[in-house]
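lol so apparently i was supposed to do this last week
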Amino acid sequence: MVDFKSNALTANKSILDWMEDRINLVNPDKVVWIDGSDAQRDELRAEACSTGEMIKLNQDKLPGCYLHRTAVNDVARVEARTLICSREKDNAGPTNNWMDPKEAYKMLDDIARDSYKGRTMYVIPYSMGPVGSPLAKIGIELTDSIYVVLNMIIMTRVGKNVLDTLGDSTDWIKGFHAKCDVDPEKRYICQFPEDNTIISVNSAYGGNVLLGKKCFALRIASYLGKNEGWMAEHMLILGIEKPGEEIKYVCAAFPSACGKTNLAMLIPPEIYKKKGYKVWCVGDDISWIKKGADGRLYAINPENGFFGVAPGTNAKSNPNALAATQKGTIFTNVALNLDDNTVWWESLDKNPPENAVDWTGKKCNGKESETPLAHPNSRFTAPAVNCPCVSPEFNNPNGVPISAIVFGGRRAKLAPLVYQSRDWNHGVFIGSSMASETTAAATGAVGVVRRDPMAMIPFCGYNMADYWQHWIDIGKTLDADKAPKIFNVNWFRKDDEGHFMWPGFGDNLRVLEWIIARCENKVGAQETAIGYLPKPEDINIEGLEGEVTRESLASILDVDKSLWAEEAKGIEEFYAKFDQNRLPQELKDQLATLKNNLK
Ligand code: OXD
Ligand code: MN
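anyway here it is w/ oxalic acid bound
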């Protein structure tokens, strides 16, 4: 067997024993421990370029930046092949794919056997959350992909200090990745929540293989959170600074590709900038939330970088994200501009490169190409420190105190611009009944409305009814004056001609301002069948002349009872999929109240 102990960065027996088992199975030629040094990272970058796995971009314009192309069949998360392998099927619940763990381990071992022959095993020790933070957790990922190593170095805190912090402890998450033949028929992303284990085979696309992200920080962590009394959520975290006042933090959950990264890095509209408002980004995708000693909920972003969707990111939609990608970034499946060796994607600007290579590796004239130059789910992996609005609290080991939780989705009709829940349990009901029109972030049909409670449908590592119960139970531990207030927003409402009714982007701060004012009891609201809505005069539309009027605002704030009655039926049908003994009584009561309010 290949030697992996003489250069080991740890003596932790639980890690070495597991590695021995994996090494016996996959038979690598070599084992490389990732130590977190720049020198080792640079060697790996050079090696990836020498094999063609990555392309070095123009180092004057994009220092430390590289381009990678995945196999054309491997461009998004594969939800149908993502499994929760709990011992009891019912513990995975009706919204997850399930496989018996014994069967899954055997199947995965058979697929991965000897697949590292002639290859290197990289051992990545990483921390989700600031190293040593009381809210952080440690993982080890074994992979045969340099691309995975280099992405993990951006997305998480990687290095020997993680192993030093872990010491002899067995409290860490096993992550095993094997690229195999990138065969879509044998592609599986398996979580074993009861064993703190993740196994991913036959993919090399980010969301399937950067095991710290969705697999650990959401699927495994949500299960850990249930058992340990905290929450792992698919939420951004932002701080709103109003001059002279303390910064208020908000967590927000939206289904994939609903503009989470844009909201997390929002640029205030001119009139707000003049008054000195600032928005700080703590995280753009995942929050780990726990009650602090003062009884409030505190959140950290367990990640260290942004794995953002490139198309649609531009100097207007998200200048902060764009700035974050200008150094030390890995681009995946975007187009290459051969004239200056930089990258391009749809809507970066109106000037596609003529001399281009599209995301599939085909040379083309970008101006004449009939197919997109960049894949719709092409990505940038950018270090968080690059972001001009990264929060000074980004590395705070204790996290930031949360004032509001915001849910949202894409609903062309129905949901008003914003409304507030009557209380915590009503907020949980709103989160549990979230729905959105699907996008390209996952494989499958685009534009279909699907229920996506708390934006966690693809990411909850256990039975979703139990997850809702966990939300209800967390609420019981919070004093009403300390619990975050819960809201729902919809930036995507359309008029009868199909035009968006709200400008979105930076102007969403106007809605956040109302949300914060509600948290501080500084503004009233109208009580409706679905919750508290702003009075149209309480949303600031100064500077939006021509785009939004009091009348148009009133119509984005309207609650159409017949559409909501349809919605209540949809929620009822969705709830019927769950074991009624597991579905919290509180949610059944909330649904009954909604139906009653709509009479
Ligand atoms: C993501 C997703 O990549 O939610 O963040 O799909
Ligand atoms: Mn996400």
